[in-house]
Write a structure and sequence with these properties.
By secondary structure, the protein is mostly helical. It has nine helices and no strands. The longest helix is centred in the middle third of the chain and has 29 residues.
Length: about 210
């Protein structure tokens, strides 16, 4: 039987790349920052462990159903549970592609937003992605998490994802209180006209006018 797992060096390399990338852009400072970053790192570790190391979800699904839906249970092609359970293993490539696009889009949004913050040198950032939503970095992380759940869903990451989203929502609210103290009426005016995580037609049209 084909067994495409047990690739622990690949697991370690992918997790290490993620940690370096995330530390470079997120730059956690406070206790809450590090706590959220730890949960995010655990999410990624769980993801890559099942993607290349040990397919726990496949074992659990097989035990629950009595058998896996297709014969090549431990082929990497069968790793996408959405495809294997509801469509066909071959359709997993579509989920992999869609999930990869979402992950890349989320990483791009985090990167572009970080550059805006770095260029502001401590000032209030209201341009670029921040002209559309107030928390593009956290929105980018959430998009990447959704992409991971599309690309390679596991029971552990599906349980962790809502916790991770809730933690970053709370972190965003805490940051807003700090920004209000720092920038006062300027930030309050910005918060009133720009949505937090999801762009609105008014904020998108305003950005087009400013550009």
């Amino acid at each position: 039987m084909e067994y495409d797992y047990g690739l622990w060096p690949i697991v370690m390399v992918n997790v290490a790349v993620f940690i370096v990338f995330s530390l470079g852009f997120l730059k956690p400072k406070t206790k809450h920052d590090w706590h959220s970053f730890g949960v995010l790192s655990a999410f990624v570790l769980a993801l890559f462990t099942e993607m290349y190391g040990f397919p726990l979800t496949i074992y659990l699904v097989s035990a629950l159903l009595g058998r896996f839906p297709n014969e090549q249970t431990f082929s990497h092609m069968s790793g996408n549970i959405w495809a294997s359970l509801f469509l066909s293993p071959e359709s997993g490539a579509v989920f992999m592609l869609l999930g990869g696009v979402l992950i890349a889009a989320g990483a791009w949004l985090v990167s572009v937003s970080w550059k805006r913050i770095h260029a502001a040198q401590g000032g209030l950032v209201t341009q670029g992605p921040y002209a559309v939503i107030r928390h593009p970095q956290y929105a980018g992380l959430v998009v990447a998490v959704i992409g991971a759940l599309v690309q390679w869903p596991t029971l552990i990451t599906m349980l962790m994802a809502p916790v991770l989203v809730a933690m970053y929502w709370r972190l965003a609210k805490r940051e807003e209180r700090n920004l209000e103290k720092q920038f006062g009426d300027g930030y309050r005016a910005y918060r009133e006209r720009i949505p937090a995580f999801l762009p609105s037609p008014s904020s998108s049209s305003r950005r087009e006018q400013e550009s």
